[in-house]
Design brief:
The protein is α+β, with helices and mostly antiparallel strands and 223 residues long. It has one domain (5-222): Jelly Rolls (Sandwich), CATH 2.60.120. The protein is built from 3 helices and 11 strands; from the N terminus they run βββαβαβββαββββ. The protein has an 8-stranded mixed sheet with strand order 1-2-3-9-6-11-5-4. It has a 3-stranded antiparallel sheet with strand order 8-7-10, with no helix packed on it. β1 (5-8) and β2 (16-20) form a beta hairpin. The two termini are 34 Å apart.
Amino acid sequence: MPALAQCFESTTAGSVAVVSNELADLARIYEPEVNLCLIRRQPEEPLRTFVTELLRRPHEIELAAEVCFERFDFRALLPDFQDIPGHAAWWRDVARLAGAYCDLFETERVGLRLRTLDKPMCPRFHVDHVPCRLVCTYGDIGTEWLPDEYVDRAKLGPGAKGLPDEESGLILDETAIRSMPAYAVGLMKGAKWEGNEGHGVVHRSPKLAPSAPRRLLLTLDAL
């Protein structure tokens, strides 16, 4: 796949999204003007096979773990699904993302969460109250986000006065709503990133479709 780098620019600090095919571009999150790094990926067939079969099964997954990367046995993740072909490709992918996150932030410990979702977990646009979160959707529909220039941040949370996003005035252009592709890696600055206060990534859970009624969401946070 050829390299791709695309930025959505704005005049304010902390408002640039870097879109790339190279995992190494996650390091651009340290650039003051960048608040989102989005790495598009084409999964290999064993990984896709595992995720497709897992999401066909009715089991609910809700896992939260404090992971010490050097000691954690990623092979033990989702033991009830180890019979599905491609399980090894999946846990190796999770380990790769966790390793990249730990290297990037020079930490040994990370908070890992895995959950299956059949409805939007956070249906309204918001900003995470964390320094920086990694998200990856295994499945067909990923997180939605808005470039900074298309957000009226005064309408976030209580500023919406109870109105839906589409009615509150928060979204300045509905055609500007972006979706992270399945298997893409999103690294998002939140409200607690030092120097980026007021410019955390505005995002929400997607509405699921009949063709993609479930997704498996991975999130990583520094501890």
